[in-house]
C-alpha cells in the first residue's frame, strides 16, 4: 500500500504563535471597544481610541458549540497603559462553565488572572514557555506588563463558549498597575 504523506493544513510561526492556513479567523479589540473597562476615565478620554489593544487569531476546525472538538487561538496584547493600568483582555468565563483551557506564553511578558465563582483571584506570570491550565468555572483575563507585544497561545474545547457578561458587569476585584516601574496587583473591591 502506498500511503501519501500530506502537508499539515495549518502552520504555526513559533516566534509569535500566529497561524496560517484556511479558515483562520481574526479579530481585534480597540480601545473604543473597551469603554468602561479601565479605571482611569480621564486618561482614557485623551487617548486615540482607534488603537488596537489586542488581536486574536482562531482556528475552529469544527462548528462552535459542537461537543468533542478543540479550538486553537493566538492572542497578541499590545504594550500600553491607560493611566498606570496595563492593556489587558476583556476576560470571560466559559458559557459551558466546567470547560477548561490551556494557555501558553510565546513572546513577551504578562500576567494571567484567574477568578473563581466567589470572586477570589490568583495570578500566574506569563513568559515564553510558561504553560497555564485554566480549570472550568474560572474566569480568566490576561495583561501585558511588558514593553513589547505579549503573544500567547490557547487551546479550548469546541463546546466551551464564552460568557463575557459577568466580567463586563462586575469586573475583576483586582487591577494590574505599574507602580514605581513595576507591575503590581491591587485590590479594588
Ligand atoms: C478563548 C481564549 C482566548 C481569548 C482571547 C481574548 O477561550 O480564552 O482566545 O478569547 O485571549 O480574550 P477575551 O477575554 O476577549 O475573549
Ligand atoms: Zn477562555
Describe this structure in words.
This protein has helices spanning 41-45, 165-170; strands spanning 10-12, 19-21, 24-30, 52-59, 70-77, 81-82, 85-86, 101-107, 110-115, 121-126, 131-134, 139-144, 150-157, 174-179, 182-187. The protein is mainly beta. It has a single domain, classed as Sandwich (Jelly Rolls). The chain has a 6-stranded antiparallel β-sheet, with no helix packed on it. Strands 10-9-12 form a 3-stranded antiparallel β-sheet, with no helix packed on it. The chain has a two-stranded antiparallel ribbon with strand order 1-2. Strand 1 and strand 2 form a beta hairpin. The chain is globular. 25% of the residues are buried. The mean pLDDT is 97. Zinc ion binds at residues 92, 94, 101, 140, 156.
Which characteristics define this entry?
189 residues, Jelly Rolls, globular, binds zinc ion
Structural class: mainly beta
Q: Trace the largest sheet across and list its strands.
A: 3-4-5-13-8-11
The rough form would be described as: globular
Strand content: 35-45%
Fold blueprint:
Elements: E1 10-12, E2 19-21, E3 24-30, H1 41-45, E4 52-59, E5 70-77, E6 81-82, E7 85-86, E8 101-107, E9 110-115, E10 121-126, E11 131-134, E12 139-144, E13 150-157, H2 165-170, E14 174-179, E15 182-187
Antiparallel strand pairs: 1-2, 3-4, 4-5, 5-13, 6-7, 8-11, 8-13, 9-10, 9-12, 14-15
Bound molecules: D-sorbitol-6-phosphate and zinc ion (ZN).
Amino acid at each position: 500500500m502506498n500511503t501519501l504523506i500530506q502537508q499539515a493544513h495549518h502552520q504555526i510561526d513559533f516566534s509569535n504563535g500566529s497561524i496560517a492556513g484556511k479558515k483562520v479567523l481574526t479579530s481585534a479589540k480597540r480601545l473604543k471597544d473597551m469603554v468602561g473597562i479601565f479605571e482611569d476615565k480621564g486618561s482614557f478620554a485623551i487617548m486615540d481610541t482607534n488603537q488596537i489593544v489586542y488581536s486574536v487569531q482562531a482556528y475552529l476546525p469544527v462548528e462552535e458549540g459542537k461537543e468533542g472538538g478543540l479550538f486553537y487561538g493566538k492572542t497578541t496584547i499590545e504594550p500600553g497603559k491607560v493611566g498606570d493600568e496595563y492593556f489587558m483582555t476583556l476576560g470571560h468565563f466559559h458559557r459551558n462553565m466546567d470547560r477548561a483551557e490551556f494557555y501558553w506564553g510565546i513572546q513577551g511578558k504578562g500576567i494571567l488572572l484567574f477568578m473563581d465563582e466567589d470572586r477570589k483571584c490568583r495570578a500566574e506570570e506569563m513568559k515564553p514557555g510558561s504553560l497555564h491550565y485554566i480549570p472550568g468555572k474560572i474566569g480568566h483575563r490576561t495583561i501585558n506588563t511588558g514593553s513589547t507585544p505579549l503573544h500567547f497561545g490557547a487551546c479550548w474545547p469546541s463546546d466551551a463558549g464564552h460568557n463575557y457578561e459577568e466580567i463586563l458587569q462586575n469586573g475583576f476585584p483586582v487591577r494590574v498597575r505599574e507602580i514605581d516601574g513595576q507591575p503590581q496587583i491591587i485590590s479594588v473591591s
